[in-house]
Amino acid sequence: MTRTEGPIQHEEARHDWTRAEAEALHALPLPDLLFAAQQVHRRHFDATRVETASLLSIKTGGCPEDCGYCSQSAHYRTGVKATRLMDQDAVLAAAAAAKAAGAARFCMAAAWRNPKPRDLERVAAMVTAVKALGLETCATLGMLTPEQAGRLKDAGLDYYNHNVDTSPEYYAEIITTRTLDDRLETLANVRAAGLKVCCGGIVGLGEGQDDRVGMLLLLASLPEHPESVPLNLWNEVDGVPVKAQAERPDPIAFVRLVALARLMLPRSVIRLSAGRQYMSDELQTLCFLAGANSIFLGDILLTTKNPERQRDADLLARLGMRTGNGRA
Predict the structure, then answer these.
(1) Which residue, 37, 136, 40, 125, is CA-closest to 95?
(2) What is the pTM of this model?
(3) Is 138 annotated in the active site?
């Protein structure tokens, strides 16, 4: 256990992780890995609290990107119909309902490669209005220029979501219309504008264990770690190329990934995102013990299912856990 004591005792976030270090931690006996993750988690968070957020698709389908896992890509026939950008009043009504249901952050997602100027202005107005409700705000709109990121910051946006999706080595297997460097450029633009970053990835796309570790190495090597890291299990979608190679990870393997994320990204909120409807209560509990401390509320995440609010409320009550970010 000598080599593992470094990251356990290390108070500051590291940006110099090696693959050998990450793989050694990932391979620890599960009790040792969970114990290490709990130590780090409790140093930076209240381990009895879970942050809650709500996600709304404000513009669905018709996306020109060819992400091979996505139901909203215009390249595939998935049964998802393209819609126009929602009216602000409808978005505000959804945000108010999310707040009443216990959400602290409201995330707005639009299926674009990048927003057009007129659309960005409409979204900026939505952000300002949602912020006025007393909610934290988050948006995911595709790639952003520095000017667009600055406009959203001025409107009151708190977080911008832009996932790396997978490891650098596997990235080209699932997306060809947008490079990983494109994504990293948007993340840099968001940071330069003073926005907080929400950035994670998806597992179950046919990638290997080394790709999952590689995704975390990429996130941990960013100049600043994302404040929020969503870990998504791929939601099964008919009609997309990923389905031919997709394989849902073993539950214990997913717990290991959560624990490794906690160790490598000690101050980041680790969110159990898409795919929770596939998880048993016991698996979610193990993920919380491994350092996950955020979930999305609501029956639908964009175009796929999510656990019902009552199931989440019942589970947290049984665990004696409360909502809130719980930062130390």
Answers:
(1) 136
(2) 0.92
(3) yes
